[in-house]
């Protein structure tokens, strides 16, 4: 499944210079945005004293910070005509952080949607299950479980962190790596679809009562679905296509050319996946009216509507 002839040099330098500019743009926009969000959660909302939803949102910010650490390194590689760093240690460290960010982002986006699902569709169950209110415990478990799930991506890499050494066939590690990778996408996506459908049906059935709360819940799970579909599904699909192409040992010239194009598309869709650090603040605003009001009153008070309070 691994392509041992992949030297990690780019096939189209001009295209990767464009990817470089996209990544730098994402970084310059996301860095101040995420710093401002973190300031709100720590100094204004004091998330550790707030309801569980703010704890999950703060952890989502931490996941985005991991991504922001990696983007300048990846961008500089693209500018130099490399798909990955020539230093094997740096290459694997960056990939580890990228996959850790991806797993954390997916996990906390999913848990936010599940939390909203229970509060809207099954409020009685949410009140009786104390574990649903243990946000710090759930968050800690997610961060503890993620590194062991991320390590398989480093054992025998799908990427090109080979340090110019020959990698022997190991089907078990290949399968383990891909099972972990795709299950982190497909299982949460299935859960998100279920939560979205159930909350939407609940809104349609509700004729009286707090329909505004239900609408906010629908907007929230829909926004999570948009972030998920835009940032994680395309890159996972391109990875699957690339895996199928690399399953064949002896490639013709035409097949090798097709694989090179698939690699370029995969790298471009990975750049697209980095948008989650820009789109996540939309989730914050839809998930917490208080966060939105505090953020606007702190940084953009002229946008506050009359009657809005912290």
Automatic annotation (TrEMBL):
Source species, domain of life: Eukaryota
Keyword Nucleotide-binding: no
InterPro entries on file: GPCR_Rhodpsn (IPR000276), GPCR_Rhodpsn_7TM (IPR017452), HCARs (IPR051893)
Entry keyword set: G-protein coupled receptor, Membrane, Receptor, Transducer, Transmembrane, Transmembrane helix
Keyword Thylakoid: no
Subcellular location: Membrane
Membrane topology: Multi-pass membrane protein
One of the record's GO cellular component terms: membrane
A GO MF term: G protein-coupled receptor activity
SUPFAM superfamilies listed in its UniProt record: Family A G protein-coupled receptor-like
UniProt-listed Gene3D superfamilies: Rhodopsin 7-helix transmembrane proteins (1.20.1070.10)
Record-annotated G-protein coupled receptors family 1 profile domain positions: 33-284
Transmembrane segments: 20-43, 55-75, 95-114, 135-155, 175-197, 217-236
PANTHER family documented for this protein: 12-(S)-HYDROXY-5,8,10,14-EICOSATETRAENOIC ACID RECEPTOR, HYDROXYCARBOXYLIC ACID RECEPTOR 2
The family this protein is said to belong to: Belongs to the G-protein coupled receptor 1 family.
Protein name: G-protein coupled receptors family 1 profile domain-containing protein
Organism field: Pygocentrus nattereri (Red-bellied piranha)
């Amino acid at each position: 499944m691994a392509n041992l002839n992949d030297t990690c040099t780019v096939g189209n330098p001009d295209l990767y210079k464009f990817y470089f500019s996209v990544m730098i743009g994402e970084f310059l926009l996301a860095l101040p945005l995420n710093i401002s969000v973190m300031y709100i959660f720590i100094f204004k909302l004091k998330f550790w004293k707030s309801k569980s939803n703010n704890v999950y949102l703060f952890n989502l910010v931490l996941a985005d910070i991991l991504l922001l650490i990696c983007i300048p390194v990846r961008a500089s590689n693209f500018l130099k005509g490399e798909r990955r760093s020539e230093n094997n240690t740096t290459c694997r460290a960056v990939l580890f952080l990228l996959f850790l960010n991806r797993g954390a982002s997916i996990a906390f986006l999913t848990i936010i949607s599940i939390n909203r699902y229970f509060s809207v569709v099954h409020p009685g169950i949410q009140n009786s299950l104390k574990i649903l209110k243990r946000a710090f415990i759930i968050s800690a478990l997610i961060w503890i479980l993620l590194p062991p799930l991320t390590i398989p991506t480093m054992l025998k890499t799908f990427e090109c962190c080979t340090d110019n050494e020959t990698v022997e066939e190991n089907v078990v590690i290949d399968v383990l790596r891909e099972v972990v990778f795709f299950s982190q996408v497909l299982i949460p996506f299935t859960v998100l679809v279920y939560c979205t459908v159930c909350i939407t049906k609940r809104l349609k059935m509700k004729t009286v009562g707090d329909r505004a709360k239900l609408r906010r819940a629908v907007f929230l799970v829909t926004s999570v679905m948009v972030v998920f579909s835009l940032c994680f599904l395309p890159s996972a699909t391109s990875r699957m296509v690339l895996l199928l192409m690399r399953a064949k040992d002896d490639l013709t010239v035409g097949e090798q050319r097709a694989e090179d194009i698939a690699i370029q598309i995969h790298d471009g869709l990975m750049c697209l996946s980095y948008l989650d650090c820009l789109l996540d603040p939309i989730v914050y605003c839809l998930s917490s009216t208080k966060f939105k009001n505090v953020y606007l009153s702190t940084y953009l008070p002229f946008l506050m509507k009359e009657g809005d309070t912290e």
